[in-house]
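Hi everyone,

Forwarding the result from last night's run.
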Amino acid sequence: MKKFIFSIISFVTFTGYVFSQITEENKYVKTWKVANKFGAVDTIPVDTAHRNFQQTHAVERFSIANAFNGNLGSPLQSKIYFDRPAAQEFIFGEAYVPYIKTIDNNVFYNTKTPFSSLRYLTGGTNYREEDQIGFLFTANANKKLNFGTTLDYIYARGEYQNQAVKRFEGSLFGSYDGRRYSAKGVIAYNSLNHFENGGIQDPLYILNPPFGYTTATIPVNLSDGVQNTFKQFQFFYNHSYSLGFERDVKQKNDSIIKEFVPVTRFTHTIQLDDNQRRYLENSVDKNFYRNTYYVQDETRDTVRFQRVSNMFAVSLAEEFNKWMQFGLSAYAENEVEKYYLMKDNSLQNRLRSNTKIGGILSKERGQAFTYKVNAEITLLGPKIGDFLLDADFAGNFRLWKDTISLRAKGFMRLDEPSYLFQHYESNHFKWENNFVKTLRTHVGGTFAVPTRNFSLDVAVENVTGKLYFDSLALPRQFEGNVQIVSANLKQDFYFGKFALENNVVYQLSSNQSVLPLPALALYHNFYFHDKWFNVLSAQFGVDVRYHTAYYAPAYMPATGQFYAQDKMKIGNYPEMSVYANLHLKRTRFFIKYYHVNELFMNGLYYSMPGYPINPALLKLGLTWNFYD
């Protein structure tokens, strides 16, 4: 530990000297994400925040309350309903969303000089550490063309038996922003392999551990060699060509320049997704599972899903003349899906195709008032009749010295259940269902005062024909309605160099058997922040996460799904951590003692039935950015 602390001090001193030589001109980096299927740009800030770098792990950034297996990279589900990602056709990939690279979370860049970033995170006890190494490189060939790559690797052995995780993510991305032609592309590959232990055998090992037991020796339900493998490949390419005219624009120095005004844009987007999941057992466990359908020495359950979609759109730009103050788009999309499923202990495939059309009416320029209304319907294929009506309205106005931000949003959608909810066969699970379409109606709004660090998001949703996994871990459909009411409050207070950040979520489910949710979830972060020697940003604090007790869903290893249970309540236990963050020029470093209250507090610190979070342990992290 002494050598480590000395190395950190030397490293920070050296980088402080080196980076003090870098000029402000080399800082120029712009970042954005793709906001919709048309390839629209959504500008985001560069990830160089001076505060709260200790929350850089995927689990902590995903939501303030999560159910997971306890180890970084393990299957995860948010306990906050409206933080959960949209339902996917490949249902076996939903638990891995926080760890995988896709077009939805890919960041595009535009930079004056080559930009690269290194990241290293570690933590845990000896020989059971969780390590994560990340790398980013991006550069502009000219003002219009950018390209880059990312690599990210996780190896986390885990504090408990048989829960090791290996995850690799790699991507290539690029963008071209020309006068008439623009394009964006991503190639992403994700591979995640994790062992399954089925949870620990008895909660007494957490509440009152016998003498001599450590986390690594607590008995678990599944033996070594049981594992899940998830792989995903995605190719995305969006390009458009604009027709328009040139107009004269007067500059401040009275000079005149020509500006191109796009009038009509033709867009094409192609996306290829290839998802595969395998469940492996070296020897078939007939005690843990209620059913075993195949009599064989080992299990190699496989399911694969491929999809190719093509979308063509025509858009009329908003505000290109005085008669039309809105944008209008029309599009048609075709998707071809192929499923590879086990049937009678052999792999078979099924091909399906769907075609839908849609239109968007929008006004997205300006700050006073913006809106977007989207409507689409599926006309051909097994999903015929699916529809979506989506609306989003936003506005800002001044009230005395404050800026008030208001936003209203809502949607109504009818969706055919995933083919994998209807048909599936494996060594331990089989089902053939005839579920009807699910109807969701959502209304919500946000009231925010950015100058007061305040926001309140309120939402109500009704789901008819809710799909879920029952207490036998089998898919079911609830024929009635399930309502969800949620209020998400964020309020931060600043007292000189001290700060208190607060996030309180209240949510109510009308049917806890079908959709169990904790009534209250809290996150609080109290810290001291200052800048030393005019170059070193320092933050020292403590944060805590907590949610009320409820019958949290259990986890089924053979399908990777979270399912309803009514035997054990989870919650009423805080997770507290103390930390220090240092930010010097292009270098960020944190040291964190995770779950520190385990040292002095007794309680059942389960994330979900059978799966405790890690005990108190030390975590470290470092990022280093280069602008040349």
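The chain has a mean pLDDT of 89.

Cheers,
N.
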